[in-house]
Amino acid sequence: MTPSVPAGAAALAAGRLRRAPEALAALTVLLQIGYPLMSGRPRDLLTVVTVVVFFAASVTHALAHRGPRWAGLLVLITAGTGLLAEAVGTATGWPFGDYTYADSLGPALLDVPLVIPLAWTMMAYPCLLVGQALARTPLAAALVGGSALAAWDLFLDPQMVQAGHWRFTDVQVALPGAPDVPVSNHLGWLLVAVLMVGALQLLPRRVADDRQPAALFLWTYVGSIVAHAVFAGRPVTALVGGVGMGLVAVPYALSLRR
């Protein structure tokens, strides 16, 4: 007979698993607060570490509240789709526009830094839950959640291009306040994000304590506005991203209050 795990030990392990997402979320916020205080190679390393910790915060929450199979499929769908889209994008220029990555984000696969697919996962998870909280049907949830994910990139790409992690080589029509980022990039993000969040609708919906991903989503929204307006010197980008992501973030925050 296989020895059984004592009930007390199992309960202790489950308790630790449920506490891990909150600890990782808190660490994510602390790392992001430290970003404007650093420069050069230490800031590049901090960028990678922040993505890894945010990724772990999202995946451990999914694991604790939705189960290992659900969490595994989350990573497979989001990281897999993100890697595929980025590999095609760097090779062909479609759907984001012509761009290349620098070597500042660590090891790469198919000319895509490995940390990039993790970034898709880390933010796709809370955006999925936001879409499901605001929309009744899977299609509507895919559109809302995908729009939230794409709107986040209105902050992300200007910041990362400014930091030198990647650059666009042919900018014909630029985003307002971000002359080095083309509008085509946002349209590509919108396409990939809606397809990605749409694929996640195939996973079973489960009622859970989603305060942690909600907090990370809203922190990302508010923190990005402050980072661009105050520290990056990009008030127009802060306004554009604030309005774009706010179309989802503000109704979501109001729904949480209700």
Characteristic key phrases:
single chain, two-stranded antiparallel ribbon, 7% strand, 258 residues, 6 strands, mainly alpha, 8 helices
Taken as a percent bin, the fraction of beta residues is 5-15%
In spatial order, strands of the major sheet run: 1-4
Compressed to H and E, one letter per element, the order equals HHHEEEHHEEEHHH
Write down how many β-strands occur, each being a DSSP E stretch of 2 or more residues: 6
Major sheet description: 2 strands, antiparallel
What would you call the shape?
Answer: globular
Tally of structural domains:
1
- The termini sit apart by 51 Å
Helix content: over 70%
Topology of this structure?
Blueprint: H1 7-34, H2 40-66, H3 68-92, E1 99-101, E2 108-109, E3 112-113, H4 115-134, H5 138-163, E4 166-168, E5 174-175, E6 178-182, H6 183-200, H7 211-231, H8 235-257
Helix pairs in contact: 1-2, 1-7, 2-3, 2-4, 3-4, 3-6, 4-5, 4-7, 4-8, 5-6, 5-7, 5-8, 7-8
